[in-house]
Write a structure and sequence with these properties.
Blueprint (H helix, E strand, L loop, with lengths): L8 H15 L17 E2 L4 E3 H11 L7 E5 L3 E2 L8 E3 L5 E5 L14 H19 L18 H6 L6 H6 L2
Parallel strand pairs: 2-4, 3-6
Antiparallel strand pairs: 1-2, 5-6
The structure holds zinc ion (2 copies).
One zinc ion binds next to helix 3.
Length: about 170
């Protein structure tokens, strides 16, 4: 799990243990591989191109890495959307998630650490689900349902529904 600047290691340790449980894989934080994502900045939008960061993670991660997910504070986008919480390679190895819009402070509200942790887990499980070939799920409770706003993120579970679970070993 490569880490971007300004991301708390405590938050990531918590995420790593949650991911290990969900995916039944050993999962660790790799602070060393923190990346300067300046190359992905779109200065007109003042946001970072998620797909470019994804490619860079794929290029730097050794082949034996089963899955890699980058966590950043930077605001991410893809050209067809105003923002994304994260992005992943469908059926690939790599994913990226931004904390920016998962944080209540982004909406001018007081910080809520527990809520941020929950949202981060849901978003990370969701993006990693895509790396296992999962597409969006119609079950609104399933972590693979698509959510473009935090209120939708907050009502879904952090687990896969039975159908989706089958795809993730
Ligand atoms: Zn998705
Ligand atoms: Zn599902």
């Amino acid at each position: 799990m490569p880490v971007g600047p300004g991301v708390s290691v405590g938050l990531l340790d918590h995420l790593a243990s949650a991911l290990a449980k969900v995916f039944r894989l050993s999962c660790h934080v790799q602070e060393k591989s923190a990346m300067d994502a300046g190359f992905a900045l779109d200065s007109r939008r003042n946001q970072y191109h998620a797909t470019q960061i994804l490619r860079r993670i794929r290029d730097i991660e050794p082949e034996e890495t089963v899955r890699a997910i980058g966590i950043t504070r930077l605001d991410l986008f893809v050209p067809i959307l105003t923002f994304v919480f994260g992005e992943a390679e469908l059926g690939g190895r790599c994913a990226v998630v931004s904390l920016q819009r998962l944080d209540e402070r982004f909406y001018g509200l007081p910080a809520r650490e527990e809520l941020l942790r929950e949202r981060l887990i849901k978003e990370a499980v969701h993006e990693l689900g895509h790396t296992f070939g999962l597409r969006h799920c119609e079950d609104w409770r399933c972590v693979m349902t698509s959510s473009h706003a935090v209120d939708r993120l907050d009502i879904k579970a952090q687990e896969f529904c039975r159908e989706c679970r089958r795809m993730v070993r």
